[in-house]
Amino acid sequence: MDNVNPFTLTLSPTTGKGNKSRAGERPPAVEIRAVSKKYGRVNALDRVSLSIGAGEFFSLLGPSGCGKTTLLRIIGGFEDLTSGEVLIDGEDCGFLPPYVRKTNMIFQHLALFPHMNVFENVAFGLRRKGVPRSQIIERVQSGLALVRLNGFERRMIDQLSGGQKQRVAMARAIVNDPAVLLLDEPLGSLDLQLRLQMQEELRRLHRSIGNTFIYVTHDQGEAMTMSDRIGVMNEGRIQQVGTPVEIYEKPRTRFVASFIGHTNLWEGEIIEKTPGGYLVSCRKVEVRCISDESFEVGQRVTVAIRYEKIGLAKGTAGECTVPAAVTERTYLGSAVRIETRVVNGNTLTADLADTARGQHIQPGDQIELEFLPSAAVAVAD
To answer: By CB distance 3.0 to 4.6 Å, which of 119, 137, 164, 305 could disulfide with 153?
Structure first.
């Protein structure tokens, strides 16, 4: 074993998604403790705390300007923090330069060298570190094999497609064997079909090497499909951290409910506590909701109901039934979107999977919509 290349061992399948424990049960690879970042009077980050498990695919999701890229750059050492701590594998790295951290970063614009071929681009960081030539050749070949670019060593960068350039950037990052790979919207410039293909490549790569991935995106679809857990950010703060299912099914704030998926939002007031949730009065409509949050009777909340969780009324016991006037119908292929106005003056939009039935509905029709209490979530305003 003494003569085995340790890099080759790192690239062996380790903790792929199929055999990982829950993120909270893993030792932390990255700990963010009350990190703040100010640019003059602007708070880019406001006392952000976060723990990311070893081997986890963790996404920072949020709109432009929410602080997600700033946080990623602080983890990588490309930005200085104003206050707080950043620990990587238990080591305080808050003010260490990037080249001494156990991280590597893939930037949105890739930063490949056009005057170098694929091999030279991938080998660049290893040469800067003084790695022996024999190890460089082995590592580069292993890295290119992982991203399925065997035989592309002598190609120049301008001879590659967009997806192949992305793979070169991935190979250049992983050959340095980082404990944590940082990805700053690396797929943002690709067209939709190629972006979907590269999402699958990233998932496969993560399963293969088992390192910790921290991925920044404003695309909820990317975050939902690739991540073990997601941290939703807004205005320099973490709004919620959870698995894709937790984030989608049980949002904790109005912002998370509105940012993820398509959601009806009704303002209301708690009138009664119920097992597992609350009864909320939304003007003239009372809605039974689920919630893990602690609210008091009389407190103002928002009721979030996903479009696809609403259907045409069938008189099913336990459903909340709402009379509605149709204002718009849109054919989506897999569903028909029905926009309505209900008795309390609110709008209620439903995505009906029964497209044959939905196609018969026209603006001006009076219909009844229904949804289960488990489809309605009470969230903080």
So the answer is: 119
Distance CA 90, CA 269 (A): 45
The arithmetic mean of pLDDT across residues 226-233, rounded, is 96
Q: Which of 1-5, 50-54, 84-88 has the lowest mean pLDDT?
A: 1-5
Q: pLDDT tens digits, residue range 144-177? A: 998 889 889 999 999 998 888 888 988 998 898 8
- Of 210, 234, 249, the residue at which a domain comes to its end is 249
Q: Are residues 259 and 237 in the same domain?
A: no
Write out pLDDT tens, residues 61-77: 999 999 999 999 999 99
Q: Does residue 269 share a domain with residue 217?
A: no
Question: How far is residue 240's CA from residue 307's CA, in Å, rounded to a whole number?
Answer: 21
Q: Is residue 1 part of a domain?
A: no
- 166 inside domain: yes
Helix (H, G, I), strand (E, B) or coil at 55: coil
Q: Kindly state the average pLDDT of the residues 12-33.
A: 60
115 and 245 share one domain: yes
Euclidean distance between CA atoms 376 and 244, whole angstroms: 18
As given in the structure block, the two tokens for residue 96 are 């260490």
Phi/psi of residue 45, nearest 5 degrees: -135, 140
pTM for this model (two decimals): 0.86
For residues 55 and 171, membership in a common domain is answered with yes
Looking only at the bridges linking them, the beta strands covering 83-88 and 91-92 are: antiparallel
- The CA-to-CA distance between both ends of the chain, in Å, stands at 58
Structure tokens belonging to residue 113: 């060298």
Query: Do 180 and 272 belong to one domain?
Result: no
SS3 assignment, position 354: coil
Count of structural domains, the chain? 2
379 within 8 A of 334, measured Cβ to Cβ = no
- Amino acid identity, position 30: V
**Nearest residue to 375 via CA among 271, 291, 255, 268:** 291
Of the two residues 354 and 103, the one the predictor is more confident about is 103
